[in-house]
Amino acid sequence: MCGIVGFVSHSGGGITYILHRALKALEYRGYDSCGIATVHENRIYFEKDKGKIDEVFVQINPEELPGPLGIAHTRWATHGAPSRENAHPHLDCSDSIAVVHNGVIENFLKLRKELTSKGHNFKSETDTECIAHLIEEFMSNGCGIFEAIKKTIRRLEGSYALAVVSARDPGRLYCARNESPLVIGLGEDGNYCASDIPAFLFWTNKVIVLHDGELATIGSESVAIENVNGLKIEREPVVVSWTADMASKSGYPHFMLKEIHEQPKALRDTLKFKQQTIDKFAEIISQAEQLYIVAAGTSYHSGLAAQSVLSQTIGIPSQAIISSEFANLVGNSLSENDVVIAVSQSGETIDTLRAIRHAQSKKSKVLAITNVLGSGITREADLVFYTQAGPEIGVAATKTFLVQLTTFTRIALKLLDNFGTNSPAYTENFREKLNQTPQALNQVINKLEIKTKSLASFLAEKSNAFYLGRGVSVSTALEGALKLKEISYIHAEGYSAGESKHGPIALVDEGFPVIFIAPNDVTRKDILGNVMEMRARGAYIITLGEEGDKELAQVSHQFLDMPQGFSLPFSPILYVVPLQLIAYYTAVKRGYDPDKPRNLAKSVTVP
Ligand code: AGP
User: Fold this and answer.
1) DSSP 2-20
2) Ligand 1 pocket test: which of 392, 407, 603 has the largest number of ligand atoms within 8 Å of its C-beta?
3) Is the Cβ atom of 604 under 6 angstroms away from ligand 1?
4) Which residues of 288-311 are buried (b: 16+ CB within 10 A; e: fewer)?
5) Using one digit for the tens of pLDDT, what is the confidence trace for 195-233?
6) How many CA atoms lie less than 13 Å away from 277 in the CB half-sphere?
7) Does the C-beta of 344 come closer than 6 Å to ligand 1?
8) In which band, very low, low, confident or very high, does the pLDDT at 249 lie, cut at 50, 70 and 90?
9) Of 23, 123, 534, 584, whose CB neighbour count within 10 A is largest?
């Protein structure tokens, strides 16, 4: 996944600073190389190189990039290694067209062969460069820039969010979208296009979302949208509630730590959002013959937790399936009586979008839970619930995981209200506890953050770790392990504690760290036994358990005491937070940047 941004200014030149700042807000989308191009007096000026945004831009002299119009790009390499040649923007043979792109052009080799045979000289290994030469080819046959872009995208197979500038058109920015996100910002000083809203939030929160198959011509005071068949489209801008401060670190050393601390607010905002949508979700779910939850990564872990919550609180069976395996596992067994809930914080994960398309090919109803306005998933699902976490910039998902869990818990509560066979007292206690989770979360963070930091010093010296839980805590264990491995690069495995004796325990030797998630629920007694087994083999036991659980504390080397009375379905919401903090502080202790872990991007938009 990559980040693209474009800007056309009212006031003339000096836009390098704006493009740099906008690009920085997209750095979570990729950071192995970057570049910028501007247009001034019928000439394109550009700079690009391998390296993170600040590393490259510190070498750039803004005077050498004049003009009121420009595009910029930060890359997560798909075709071609990170290098100066493969960095965007990519230009045509005469350096008069510049393109930045997020996505994958699947037929680029065929296009490259065709264009090379027509005399075009390629300078990179990327799929993107063929777009610049294709536009050049159509313009050499007499097309204007916009017509050439339209003809070009008709030749492209695959996903793209494009921004294009031409030396012959120094006042307009062109963009086009298919499967990769692209939004337009309407500012006082000019207009923007970008892969995501945070890019221009510092200047405007007036947003037009471009849809798949659409193109836009952006001037400093105008935006014209049409689809690839030339149909003009009128679309009103929306004013998003996000602010620039929400998309900045606000004094925290990293976005991830800020976003961990934002979780109580994210829960409060999500708890009170759109009850009518929750009611609709509950009604549809209650009528499902089969209920599936599809997602990837952390979102899959929230779906797995939801599977336990729905089955244990309201008796509704469901199956959480990893998006990339959904079509393979359910095949043709889906029908129009089934419901699929797709969970994706970015709303752009291609595996999850493909799972949705498979479900819709079998006429199943698709519900979506996402955090990003106008993301791809919102246009493919039948009904959408927007979580209210605000922008999540850190690559490691934290607050969006919690608000996904909160959304599922709200749905379970509504099902209890409508169909629950439990006592009214059970349902009322459920409602009360759910409303107490933000405050309980505050207590957890305030009470345990220092302890997680000291545990990080121990873990930072280790190269392996187990996270073990039972019941709904298996999903918490998986999530805790994912956090540690994806930002500290320690090999951590989340596992069912019951399953750990069927092989994994062979790995345990003296000092091997094993983290147990042990809320005071039906699984606690068996977990106690598993702790003893691991301890007997020399493991270093770290346990998250209910405050006052002396029995568990006595058999643990480290005991993190959690608020009393928050077992299923609330334990995953609370118990994951110390695990997020442990991962964060371990990564920092090991000298890594938790916001930009190696090889990862915030949203996986290529399969
Ligand atoms: C989580 O920390 C990872 N960044 C990753 O597993 C992520 O959850 C996954 O790629 C799914 O993303 P989505 O929620 O945007 O679909």
Assistant:
1) -EEEEEEESS-S--HHHHH
2) 603
3) yes
4) bebbbbbbbbbbbbbbbbbbbbbe
5) 999 999 999 999 999 999 999 999 999 999 999 899 999
6) 16
7) yes
8) confident
9) 584
Domains and CATH numbers, the chain: 3-239 (3.60.20.10), 254-422 (3.40.50.10490), 447-593 (3.40.50.10490)
Burial class (CB in 10 A: 0-12, 13-18, 19+), 280: middle
- Edge-to-edge strands of the sheet including 238-239? 44-50, 33-39, 69-75, 3-9, 190-194, 183-186, 206-209, 238-239
Provide the CA 54 distance to its chain's centre, in angstroms: 22
In the structure encoding, which two tokens stand for residue 62, read together? 């803004």
pTM tops 0.85, yes or no: no
How many Å is the Cα radius of gyration of the chain?
A: 25
CA distance 368 to 569: 21
- Distance of alpha carbon 258 from alpha carbon 266, whole angstroms: 12
Q: Quick: pLDDT tens for 16-73.
A: 999 999 999 898 887 889 999 999 999 999 999 999 899 999 888 888 899 999 999 9
Active site residue 175: no
At 372-426, the pLDDT tens digits run 988 889 989 999 999 999 989 899 999 999 999 999 999 999 999 998 788 889 9
Can you read off the two tokens belonging to residue 247?
Answer: 């998309």
